[in-house]
Design a protein that fits this description.
This protein is α+β, with helices and mostly antiparallel strands and 398 residues long. The chain is 34% helix and 25% strand. Strand 18, helix 11 and strand 19 form a beta-alpha-beta unit.
Amino acid sequence: MNIHEHQAKALLKSFGAPVAEGVAIYSADEAADAAKSLPGPLYVVKSQIHAGGRGKGKFKELGPDAKGGVRLAKSIDDVVAHAKEMLGNTLVTKQTGPAGKQVNRLYIEDGADIARELYLSLLVDRTTGRVAFVVSTEGGMDIEAVAEETPDKIISLSIDPDAGVTASDVKALSDALALTGEARNDATKLFPILYKAFTETDMSLLEVNPLIVMDNGRLRVLDAKVSFDNNAAFRHADLAPLRDMSEEDEKEIEASKFDLAYVALDGNIGCMVNGAGLAMSTMDIIKLYGAEPANFLDVGGGATTEKVTAAFKIITADPAVEGILVNIFGGIMRCDVIAEGVIAAVKEVGLKVPLVVRLEGTRVKEGKEILDKSGLNVISADDLDDAAQKIVTAVKNA
């Protein structure tokens, strides 16, 4: 689960991290009062969407010369003007895709005098099985570009879960960020605070870009991006209200109701597969034969007929889908259950695009018989390679 910047900062502040004062608003009418509640005289008006690159983004409705999704304001009147221009409009960034995201809330924040911009994040390092700090002196920039062009400027440090953030860890991170004076003193408190927030709330990502050194030498979290591990959501009922469903794909929301692993993509071939690895392979081979997957969808190992029906309905609800590939290797998952779910879904929503089904494994004979006797226009495939070729050909000839 992703949350907005203002929510992430409030959470980090509750753990003791240094953040600026700020107010979230949902209408331009709230802008003036929000700004008046802050010290000023410099304010920052920030679009709140679940995407990076907001500062360099452009609003669809405002033309190429308009300012981006993060703006400085030197007066309360400027804050109000920016709020009126930004709220309700569509911000397009490098992470939103061309469709962009509508800005439904803003964060009005007190400004800061910046001496240096640094990069800091925490994530789970799969190679060590530990939480790791990733830091760089090149903050405020596209960290992917830094990694590509100057990888030596990115330092990673895994944390021993038994010891936590030690004095030697703090020294190593402070040295990597070239911190001195007050900033170095602040780091002794900040790094353990961020680690505690990450681990105690089961985050999967905490990114501070930039972490700034202000003119007075102190550290401040200037931006914050937080994602939580959905598998740990049962432990954090208090975090559930932070979810903003308006930022999520409607099909992904529907899939979550049935415990389906679904991610919407930009292609034209809908996929229903059991197992994440098999799903990835299915998407790869679709691309190999010249088409693009419309989704990642893993129905899991113990799916019921109802769950499969829901999955099929979600796929067919996507207007971009021009063909569907069902690829099931039955271990725990039974092929006859998949067949029954596909038939139930087709009877309910209809079948307007080509459908290729590849079944193998547990009760495969029964599954194929169910499909054969259904009267559906189903194209049967013998293996994954055969299935991918058949669905791509069927879509091209449709």
